[in-house]
Recover the amino acids of this structure.
């Protein structure tokens, strides 16, 4: 798809960092919805197969099981996936879509629940007409469920990873002296958090000096909670260098030489 045809939303943080998001249009969302609908049908079909087994014991229980399964799948499929996959269902993942808070923040569980409960309104009267019109008319391509939950759906394009060997060339990384803590850092940091640190390093020259210092101080303090390194490994480096070292650990090969 041509990215130039997509609406772009710019969000500026208090630290002066600007993030741009490609808003998902109604066609991409409809295709993702179709995939999710098919997945729900498969789950319901599986439940119907199980209910046949229960008929051996009780026809009433079998019917009740099938009815409950239908409502659980219909109501909980999207809620469960969007919460555990951070704004994505199977269909959204296939089409590189993600649900975000309108400020670009991580979703709250209540937002996930609200936007999915209002699916029942967005599909009215037929063929998702209300939700589709809302997406077209809304400046942020939001359906009614998104408006109520203060969310938006964005397209996540494939981005070529920068050459970290060039970005970090000649920089000694003191964190690599503690491989077990580096492993813990990788386990505790989500892909979105790693990408945020990466973008801060790549765009560091765009910030005013005071904003740059404050931004890297906040990011460094956040990542220090993910894995606690000994004081002797971090006491003589700046916050910006600490974030650079974190990016190196998260994105570079663990087998790279650690010698200064």
């Amino acid at each position: 798809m041509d990215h130039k045809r997509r609406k772009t939303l710019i969000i500026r943080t208090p630290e002066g960092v600007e993030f741009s998001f490609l808003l998902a249009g109604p066609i991409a969302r409809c295709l993702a919805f179709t995939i999710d609908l098919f997945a729900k049908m498969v789950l319901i079909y599986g439940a119907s197969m199980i209910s046949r087994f229960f008929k051996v014991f009780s026809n009433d229980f079998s019917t009740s099981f099938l009815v409950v399964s239908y409502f659980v799948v219909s109501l909980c499929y999207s809620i469960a996936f969007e919460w555990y996959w951070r704004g994505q269902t199977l269909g959204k993942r296939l089409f590189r879509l993600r649900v975000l808070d309108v400020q670009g923040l991580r979703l709250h569980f209540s937002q996930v629940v609200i936007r999915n409960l209002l699916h029942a309104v967005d599909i009215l009267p037929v063929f998702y007409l209300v939700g589709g019109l809302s997406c077209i008319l809304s400046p942020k391509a939001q359906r009614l469920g998104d408006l109520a939950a203060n969310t938006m759906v964005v397209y996540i394009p494939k981005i070529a990873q920068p050459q970290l060997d060039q970005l970090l060339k000649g920089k000694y990384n003191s964190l690599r002296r503690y491989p077990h803590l580096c492993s813990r850092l990788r386990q505790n940091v989500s892909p979105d958090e790693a990408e945020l640190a990466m973008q801060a390093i790549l765009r560091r020259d765009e910030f005013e000096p005071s904003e740059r210092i404050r931004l890297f101080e906040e990011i460094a303090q956040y990542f220090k909670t993910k894995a606690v390194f000994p004081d002797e490994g971090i006491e003589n480096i700046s916050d910006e260098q600490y974030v650079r070292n974190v990016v190196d650990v998260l994105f570079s090969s663990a087998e790279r030489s650690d010698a200064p």
Observations:
- Residues 144 and 195 are 30 Å apart (CA to CA).
